[in-house]
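Late entry, iron/sulfur cluster complex.
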Amino acid sequence: MDRVDLLAHFPPGFTPRPEQARLLASLADAIAEALDDPTAPRVFVVEAPPGIGKSHIAMALARWSGDAYLLTSQKLLQDQYEREFGADLQLVKGRDNYLCERYPEARVPTSRGMCRRPRGPLCQCPYARAKAAALAGPIFCTNTSYFATLRHWRADQLRKRRLLIIDEAHNLEAQLVSVFTVAFPPELTKAWFGGPLPRLDAAEAYRALMREHLERLDGQLEALTRALEVMRPSGVPPETFLSIPPSRAEQELMVERESLETALARVRFFVDAEDREWVVRYPPEPGATLELVPLTVASTARELLGESADFVVLSSAYLGHRSALAECFGLEEAAVRSLASDSPFPLAQRRIDYRPVGALSKTSLARLEPALFTEVAAILDAHPHEKGLIHAPSYAAGRRLVADLAGRGPAFSRRLIWVESAQAKTRALDQHRAAATPTVLVSPSLREGVDLPDDFLRFQVVTKMPYPDLGDPWTAARRARDPRWYALETAKALVQAYGRSCRHADDHGLTYVLDRQFERFLAHYRALLPPWFLDAVRAAMRARYPEASSECEDSG
Ligand code: SF4
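Prediction complete; structure with ligand written out below:
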């Protein structure tokens, strides 16, 4: 068997920790076996709790391969890779993240740059250069959505590489679903269909409708191209016109053309994918966006994972049993090998304090909110000098919580930073980090992708169990198809939230859980949670029910 030495490729300047070294040794064995035996698994699942340093493991693998795609789930994480390992990788983001260099004064994104205008020049812009460098370089680093889009619609550009690494792979299904979703926001349906689309019962009915419109929409795309051509006043030579940055009206037309192009590609995919199940998401409010959402991504994931590289590494804090993962991504279970690491951090540094106020659900929430809010206030009182994070049940419940706490006095209101939307995250996090006072973030969307080490987070509160929202038709349909999927998504979300508390060997943070559903979940789905999380759960239950602890021990 060929020896594979991944440790020799550990990013320079860093010393591997014992858990990293162990995981890399297991991965090296697994790769060596696959090199030797064409029937051995080629998809490796690497699960390690937050704080182990999975990005260093990913970089060691990528550097060993010398020929890798390295995908992150969010642009924020992509930036983190660039900061830490910039010299080793070639990073590319979507077109809109770069500015056209032909208009240095005007801040025109490359998606509306000079080359995108009628008779625009052939040119190499920052985006094109970054993409070319990534395509030619040994480590092509980008975000998963961009890669999946390119892979599906421009497969010729992405040759098969030796290795594909997908970081934060617990998000892969959701990201693929969103890449293939066809969305019709109201302002665009007005332009494309003359008004809102009808409310039809099933995706099949929309397929027939879309088929009827395809030809007309193609015509509309041509009309937009013609409209762009006549933006140049007669008598003005193209060179002079191109030298002036595009007007607002021209940019709007370019955006419209791009939206229609993108939508048409997805509509075609939807119309042709008759063999797949689709879900209609069309909220009842007037002016809502209609979305046609693929129920599963098994076939697209199988293609992505099978054709992008010889070996695939899926990395996350927790992904669940490989049988569930294989099913979700259309793989044979035997083609997947799982490698997991325990937590190196002592329990005392990552404790759970279980303080149930009741079993929270959609129906019980209103009744239990007063008790929930009082408990959160007591927790804030118990940590007067420390920064923290409150995971709210939803945006609406979070607003009520913040209003209630603010009503309890300025000592509370001064500390709270309410994160009112996913877009407001970065600003809120900066504010929290910069504040010298013991600020507390409140949000339903900070369970993952957020690094708040040391004094930035000494306590956090899981108010409600993070069950995915069954009010969303896709989630409801996915659960109806596979109830185990729903439980596993909840387990993954819980583990992600817990993972905010202790970020490295010298860190510590306390996690409060206030929902009695936690106990019910454990009773049914203990097997879906990783051992390092269950260690903390056992200690929390012993503290909560000292008299029953021997029974708990017996039942494991
Ligand atoms: S290729 Fe050239 S013209 Fe086009 S967006 Fe980039 S810099 Fe501008």
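The pocket of iron/sulfur cluster is lined by residues 100-102, 110, 113-115, 123-125, 128 (CB under 6 Å). Will revisit in the morning.
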